[in-house]
Amino acid sequence: MKMNESLHAFDFERQFNDRAALEWFKQNWGAAFVLSGVYVVVIFLGRVFMKDRQKLELRKPLVLWSLSLAIFSITGAMRSGWYMFNMVQSRGLQESVCDTEFFSAPVSKFWAFAFTLSKAPELGDTVFIVLRKQRLIFLHWYHHITVLLYSWYTYKDRVAGGGWFMTMNYTVHAFMYSYYTAKAAGARVPRPFAMLITLMQITQMIMGLSFVGLLYLWKHDIHCFSTMHNIIFASVMYLSYLLLFSVFFYQSYLKRSGDEKRVKRE
């Protein structure tokens, strides 16, 4: 019996047609470039439109939006995490990194597809930032575009490493969107919680780079399918994220705390 057959899958997960999903992404993954282009235009036009207008609160829509993504991410983290936990426990680290059954296993195939597709609607995060006239940093829109492009590009090839990459992202987003929900609802969330989320993101990038490195070492193994194009794309993406999130953490928490202490002394 295969490992994935020993895991309980719900009917909707088991009945999901992953072959049709694969075929759709093979034919339409290039649409990610169109979506990215539309996204940039909407951001630009939205900022121009809001320049001389009062910001919109949009508190209730933002709570519902963040809550929906939080529930989705929590569920995805639990289902994909359960698959990866069992993979490591039964087959070891190398098999878990080199695994490609994640895209077709009954318990995880729906969540692999849902994860990839979700990178398009997640662009809506930026619409709220623009309409509420909040600060839009480079990291935010760069991250959204590159994750969308990489996820759609990778799903069609079903290369090794996808299970880890998706599970890590689901998990971080589960905390992140829960935090956004609480903030949008007006709850006072302790500052350390925001710091913890950024540290989780930095850790995710370090682990992502580590897994990419292992894929490079093991890519000649017949059971560890990947391509140099994907490995290079993933390496550049994770390294750039690591640098940008580290700078963000320093400027938002370490530097700001230092500046606040100096102001108090003066």
Automatic annotation (TrEMBL):
PROSITE patterns: ELO. Its main location: membrane. Keywords: Fatty acid biosynthesis, Fatty acid metabolism, Lipid biosynthesis, Lipid metabolism, Membrane, Transferase, Transmembrane, Transmembrane helix. It comes from the Eukaryota. The chain crosses the membrane at residues 29-50, 62-85, 161-180, 192-218, 230-254. It is an enzyme of class 2 (transferase). Its EC number is 2.3.1.199. The keyword Lipid biosynthesis applies. It is a multi-pass membrane protein. One of its GO terms (biological process) is sphingolipid biosynthetic process. GO terms for cellular component: endoplasmic reticulum membrane. It is found in: Membrane. It catalyses: a very-long-chain acyl-CoA + malonyl-CoA + H(+) = a very-long-chain 3-oxoacyl-CoA + CO2 + CoA. GO terms for molecular function: fatty acid elongase activity. It holds the Pfam family ELO. Belongs to the ELO family. PANTHER family: ELONGATION OF VERY LONG CHAIN FATTY ACIDS PROTEIN 3, FATTY ACID ACYL TRANSFERASE-RELATED. This is Elongation of very long chain fatty acids protein. It comes from Sinocyclocheilus grahami. The lineage of its organism: Eukaryota, Metazoa, Chordata, Craniata, Vertebrata.
